[in-house]
Design a protein that fits this description.
Blueprint lengths: L26 E5 L8 E8 L5 E7 L13 E7 L5 E8 L4 E3 L6 E3 L5 E9 L3 E9 L5 E6 L6 E8 L5 E9 L2 E9 L5 E7 L6 E8 L5 E10 L2 E9 L5 E6 L7 E8 L5 E8 L5 E9 L5 E6 L4 E2 L2 E7 L6 E10 L2 E9 L5 E9 L7 E10 L5 E10 L11 E7 L18 E4 L5 E9 L1 E6 L18 E7 L4 E6 L3 E6 L6 E9 L2 E10 L1
Parallel strand pairs: 27-31, 31-38
Antiparallel strand pairs: 1-30, 2-3, 3-4, 4-5, 6-8, 7-8, 8-9, 9-10, 11-12, 12-13, 13-14, 15-16, 16-17, 17-18, 19-20, 20-21, 21-22, 21-23, 24-25, 25-26, 26-27, 28-29, 29-30, 32-33, 33-36, 34-35, 34-37, 37-38
């Protein structure tokens, strides 16, 4: 459970892209489905056949006064393509605390039902693996617990080849943690369980995906010393027997959960956090490994910061690009969420850090736990938004589920990658910063610029109000107008421009602040 103060920002670290362009409208919003004051976090996201987004989360309907218990509800949230809630339902019981696993721990069945893999917690901190079931409309069905496995914490669920499920996590055995993989039938009834690691170490598994031939790739971390862990990768057969295992760490303190994803070529890629050997700084890391356990490539991204990690990685299309998400700390100890798109060989296309803002808070922190490609060519990520960088919590602010929808270039408003000036920072959700009238426009229009009193123009490498610019980008991705802007009304001369759809953006130096559609008739 993330319960911290800090920073959230959207930083565009690379200008331009070699990836295909899909200009789709995005959104950045937070969801509070259980009431203000209760901490919530999003863990997994899928898209259904109707273009709706299915999000798993947990939150704090805590009945027992005990600091150990950080969640007692599992929520399935359905939002539409514009970010509006379609349905939200909870699995909640006064006798158990419920935990929906971690990054990407949700599967969709052929009949439309959803299954989330995690654990339950009973009084005395007794934890057992559990599967949470929801129907195709997102309505709660119930819990299936594996009561014979006590002190087993489920982290991620996957599908088995026979229609059942596999679940990985960590088991507390003889006062140390070991990784486990269990297999259930299609109803969630236990068929077998295997444990991995050593009785002397602290070993954890966080991810599972199908491997060629009916087996599984597993990813986690292996304890290699006092408070030191290396990425830990395994391949198992269909019964959980180890075929090979490797670690891929450094002499320094590696970060990461080795979030594995199987690729169309039968190999896999995982995300982690690579130490650079200077203080405690890290860089987001992607590694591709073949089916025999040989590392094919190992890439690091971004400038190093304290605690930088990839939480999830997906293949954009079979044999194509990769999309990943995670968080970093450009200003310690404040986290921000990022998205990273690379080629299939791991070469960076773009990396953007996202800074959350809305009518309640203008400088919140946040993280991303899961990301998936969307049918319109863009991406959607989920995580949590919480706290404020200045430590001042506005009324009505608390940790909520954060959902970000972007286009193929990581833009919430299309065109953020098409400016003559390289953009390195973007704020999200300053929706009221630009008001255009008339719109549609004929020859000219007025743009009113409104920024909050506690303006996000302060800090984070922002240019300041003296560098405010209005930038107009055509639907073809061409910057056709740049004009200095001020707070208040700004006249925009459109007389030389052809009719059609444009996107108007507000920037300050290297920072993107807001954007909106503008139609010229």
């Amino acid at each position: 459970m993330w319960n911290m103060l800090g920073l959230v920002g959207l930083v565009c670290l690379l200008h331009g892209s070699t990836g295909s362009r899909a200009m789709a409208q995005g959104f950045s919003t937070r969801f509070d489905t259980i009431g203000s004051g209760y901490y919530q976090v999003g863990w997994a996201v899928l898209e259904n056949d109707s273009g709706e987004f299915i999000i798993s989360s947990n939150g704090g309907w805590v009945d027992w006064v005990d600091s150990l218990y950080y969640s007692s509800t599992v929520t399935l949230l359905i939002v539409d393509a514009s970010g509006e809630i379609v349905n939200a339902d909870h699995i909640y019981t006064t006798t158990l605390l419920t935990y929906p696993g971690m990054m990407g721990s949700m599967v969709r069945l052929s009949d439309g039902r959803f299954v989330i893999g995690g654990s339950t917690f009973a009084a005395g901190w007794i934890q057992v693996p559990a599967l949470y079931w929801f129907n195709a409309n997102g309505e709660a069905i119930g819990i299936v617990q594996i009561d014979t496995l006590t002190d087993y914490l489920g982290r991620q669920i996957g599908r088995a080849n026979d229609g059942g499920f596999v679940l990985v996590g960590d088991a507390y055995i003889n006062e140390v943690h070991q990784g486990f993989l269990l297999k259930t039938d299609s109803a969630g009834l236990l068929q077998w369980v295997r444990t991995y690691g050593t009785e002397q170490g602290e070993d954890y598994l966080f991810a599972v995906d199908s491997a060629p031939g009916g087996g599984y790739y597993l990813g986690g971390v292996k304890g290699v010393g006092t408070d030191s862990y290396d990425p830990w990768l395994m391949r198992c057969d269909s019964l959980g027997n180890v075929q090979w295992e490797i670690t891929n760490g450094t002499q320094f303190a590696d970060l990461g959960r080795a979030a594995v994803t199987t690729l169309a070529d039968g190999n896999f890629v995982y995300g982690s956090g690579l130490p650079n050997g200077i203080a405690s700084d890290h860089q987001p890391q992607l590694v591709k490994v073949d089916s025999l356990g040989t590392v094919l490539w190992d890439m690091a991204y971004d400038t190093a910061s304290f605690t930088a990690i990839v939480n999830q990685v997906k293949e954009v299309a079979p044999g194509g690009d990769l999309i990943s998400c995670g968080f970093s700390q450009p200003i310690t100890p404040y986290n921000d969420g990022f998205l990273l798109r690379t080629t299939s060989e791991g070469d960076s296309i773009w990396l953007r850090h996202y800074w959350y803002t809305d009518s309640v808070t203008h400088n919140s922190t946040g993280i991303f736990n899961d990301v998936t490609p969307t049918s319109d060519g863009g991406f959607i990520a989920v995580g949590a938004v919480y706290g404020a960088i200045d430590g001042v919590e506005p009324s009505g602010s608390n940790q909520d589920v954060w959902v970000l929808k972007v286009d193929s270039l990581g833009c919430i408003i299309p065109g953020c990658d098409d400016f003559s000036t390289v953009i390195t920072v973007q704020a999200t959700n300053l929706k009221d910063a630009l008001v255009v009238y008339p719109n549609p426009a004929h020859g000219g229009t007025t743009v009113k610029v409104t920024l909050p009193s506690n303006s996000p123009l302060l800090g984070r490498g922002v240019g300041g109000e003296v560098d405010l610019r209005l930038r107009l980008v055509s639907a073809q991705g061409q910057e056709v107008l740049v004009q200095r802007a001020v707070r208040g009304e700004n006249a925009l001369d459109l007389g030389t421009l052809a009719g059609g759809l444009y996107h108007l953006h507000l920037t300050s130096g290297s920072t993107w602040l807001s954007g909106t559609k503008l139609i010229i008739e």
